[in-house]
Design brief:
747 residues, four-stranded mixed sheet, Gyrase A, domain 2, 17 helices, Topoisomerase II, domain 5, elongated, alpha+beta, 31% helix
Length: 747
């Protein structure tokens, strides 16, 4: 057995004492800031996250230019990971794959060779099988990076430099969009048409105070790489682009094909952005199998390079537009793409920008790039002019220069002393070749000197005039726009903008095949549906120790209302309930009914009725049935049940009288007008009890009299109920003879 040595004790100066909550909060804040600024949010200037920026810069360093050859993606990933991005190779490759996919980005920045995935959602091949290089668009983003146009910082290991931002010759942020989730914030930016963005930028240069509504005359809306039809209203789009928050409704593009003899089929040629075609087809097939798309008979995927989904209607009498409206409401043939223009500004701080602010930030970045590039060029010109001035001196004094070089021990020092030359000029003269002494070379140097002087004067004038700078930026944008000409395959608009479709009354039940069923809910909460009508449930089978409780005739288009003993209502679609020959499923798989609660009542939603609700504490009220419909599985709290009590009554309110009976068998009858109507609450006291609580309650018509139903389902009349007449909240009298021994109006 090998003995392990104890680690040496820590020195006192290495130990820091601080409260745990402060240490955790400070470290979590550092993590959050790192996630926001170095991972999840793009920069407003070049529209890139650090990983994408590092991929493009590394590929440029590897000379993977658009006109050159391809190299293995694994080599690119290794270069990025080793020099710039100390994270997993798969994360880098996934980011790189997205820059290749023309269905993921509007303007691909990496040109891929091999399997880089498809719109069906299939993954790309391993990085050792694929090859890549930069695209022309990526070259535009990197153009001028060697001319001191942007700042550089040290890489993670301090051995190299990486750009903080790229020069970005076109507004890539809005062109390709972005999505990401940071800590406490997220971003979601749809792609746009580059030519439209450049047109809006040019207008913003001419009119710096242009409003969002004016810019939207140029930027028509999102332009998704997969096309589709955007049906968002103009008012909604203007608000979204003004505030930086909103969303866009995007629909699939479809057409009809005539098959002759009055038959037709629908062909979907473009699907919404980021919707996987294979999953969309699976969803359509599932809805058809579960009979939730009664208007559709078949769906086929006949796609090759282009999308082609064939939808066959069940009946040729069904209008194609009506069928598509149902599909838009129930499938991902229509999505809502959110806009959350949350980006990192030039100062590195995250904030939400509108369209105008984002374009303004991009133009300010281009101005900064122009000024820095101009200063860089002026410095280069100054260096060259210094050398040319020295060479001209040498030509004017050629014999003396030759003598000094030939006979002096230190020709460099003598040249500097004799002609007042700088060290650079003297070195240039000494490095001249003999054949450069011909007269033609002197003329060329004088011409170059004159050209550089002219260029220097123009560049200095450019730096002094802000108008000239903006004019130069406008010219550069116009030149870049030619690469994204709207008539070219890359530049043409793909997403059509259409008016908002007219809102028609749509009944979801029309999608479901209507047929009679019987809902069976057992004592222990197992629910199922059985086809057809069942009047007697004696032949039904249940799990051991269980028995039937509710037997409700229904149609598949109905909705089932459940009233829990906690005072909550739960709503379920009958067609969604489990069917078959088994025992069904526990109701708690469909609704969030607590384990210590039970179902007090179950009935079908009809709408427009009033319900009598009451708890064992004796409190209750009338509630509109429409206000009791729950939209989530968590249910909707309507009756507030006091501690120690539970909800016990939920019946349709029909009649002008209310009858309540307690565990003490005392019956109280009072006018229904004394009970309030509420949407939620504890209610008022129906009946007071010295001991026990409320057992049951119902409403009835005074002219028809009070009745109850025995276990055999026969209706029994309560004779002498008038002796129990009183006011609400009284104790009542002992129920007349003949009333149910169970103290219930129904079994």
């Amino acid at each position: 057995m090998v003995k392990t040595k104890n680690p040496p004790p820590r020195r006192a100066e290495e130990i820091f004492l601080e409260p745990l909550d402060e240490a955790l909060s400070r470290r979590y804040l550092a993590y959050a800031l790192s996630t926001i600024t170095a991972r999840a949010l793009p920069d407003v200037r070049d529209g890139l996250k650090p990983v994408h920026r590092r991929i493009l810069y590394a590929m440029r360093q590897m000379r993977l230019n658009p006109g050159g050859g391809f190299k293995k993606s694994a080599k690119v990933v290794g270069e990025v990971m080793g020099n710039f991005h100390p994270h997993g190779d798969q994360a880098i490759y996934d980011a790189m794959v997205r820059l290749v996919q023309d269905f993921s980005v509007r303007v691909p920045l990496v040109d891929g060779q091999g399997n880089f995935g498809n719109i069906d959602g299939d993954n790309a091949a391993a990085m050792r099988y694929t090859e890549s290089r930069l695209t022309e668009a990526a070259s535009l983003l990197l153009d001028g990076i060697d001319e001191d146009t942007v700042d550089f910082r040290e890489t993670y290991d301090g051995e190299g430099k990486e750009p903080v931002v790229l020069p970005a010759a076109f507004p890539n942020l809005l062109a390709n969009g972005a999505s990401g989730i940071a800590v406490g914030m997220a971003t979601s930016i749809p792609p746009h048409n580059v030519a439209e963005l450049i047109d809006a930028s040019l207008h913003l240069i001419k009119s710096p105070n242009a409003q969002t509504a004016t810019l939207l005359k140029y930027v028509k809306g999102p332009d998704f790489p997969t096309g589709g039809v955007c049906v968002e209203s103009a008012e909604s789009m203007e608000e979204a682009y003004a505030t930086g928050r909103g969303g866009f409704r995007l629909r699939a593009r479809w057409t009809t094909e005539d098959l002759g003899r009055g038959r037709y089929q629908i062909v979907v040629t473009e699907i919404p952005y980021q919707v996987q075609k294979s999953k969309l087809v699976e969803k359509l097939a599932e809805l058809m199998q579960t009979k939730k798309l009664s208007l559709l008979s078949d769906v086929r995927d006949e796609s090759a390079e282009d999308v082609r989904l064939v939808l066959e209607p069940k009946s040729q009498n069904v209008d194609a537009a009506t069928l598509m409206e149902t599909l838009f409401r129930t499938t991902d043939l229509e999505i809502r793409f959110s806009l959350n223009l949350n980006v990192l500004g030039a100062d590195g701080a995250p904030r939400v920008m509108g369209l105008r602010e984002a374009l303004r930030a991009y133009l300010d970045h281009r101005k900064d790039v122009l000024v820095r590039r101009t200063n860089f060029r002026l410095a280069k010109i100054a260096q060259r002019l210094e050398i040319l001035d020295g060479l001209l001196v040498a030509y004017l004094n050629l014999d003396e220069v030759i003598r000094i070089i030939r006979y002096e021990d230190d020709p460099k020092a003598e040249l500097m002393k004799a002609f007042k030359l700088s060290d650079v000029q003297a070195e240039a003269i000494l490095n001249m070749r003999l054949r450069s002494l011909r007269q033609l070379e002197e003329m060329e140097i004088k011409a170059e000197h004159a050209d550089l002087k002219k260029e220097q004067k123009a560049l200095k004038a450019l730096l002094k005039s802000e108008d000239a700078q903006w004019s130069r930026i406008a010219d550069e944008l116009k030149e870049v726009r030619k690469a994204f000409d709207p008539k070219s395959p890359l530049g043409r608009r793909r997403t059509e903008l259409a008016d908002v479709p007219a809102t028609e009354e749509f009944d979801p039940a029309s999608l479901i095949e209507k047929e009679p069923v019987t809902v069976v809910l057992s004592e222990k909460g197992w629910v199922r549906t059985i086809k057809g009508r069942i009047d007697n449930g004696d032949d039904l089978k249940y799990k051991d120790g269980d028995r039937g409780r509710f037997l409700i005739p229904a149609m598949t288009t109905d909705r089932l209302m459940l009233f829990g003993t906690d005072g909550k209502f739960y709503t379920l679609d009958v067609h969604a309930l489990p069917g078959g020959r088994g025992y069904g499923e526990p109701i708690r798989l469909s609704v969030d009914l607590p384990n210590d609660q039970d179902i007090a009542a179950a009935f079908l939603y009809q709408g427009g009725r009033k319900l009598l609700l009451a708890s064992t504490s004796g409190h209750g009220f009338f509630a509109p049935e429409d206000d009791c419909v729950a939209t989530t599985r968590k249910g909707k709290q309507v009756l507030n049940v006091p501690a120690g009590a539970e909800a016990v009554v939920c019946r349709p309110a029909e009649g002008d009288m209310v009858a309540s009976v307690g565990d003490n068998r005392k019956l109280l009858v009072f006018p229904a007008s004394e009970l309030p109507e509420m949407s939620r609450g504890k209610g008022v006291q129906l009946q007071k009890f010295a001991s026990g609580g409320l057992s049951d309650a119902k409403t009835f018509d005074k002219r028809e009299g009070l009745t109850w139903i025995d276990r055999s389902g026969r209706t029994q009349t309560v004779d002498g109920w008038k002796t129990c007449l009183g006011k609400r909240a009284q104790a009542g009298r002992v129920a007349p003879k003949g009333f149910a021994s169970s103290k219930k109006f129904a079994p």
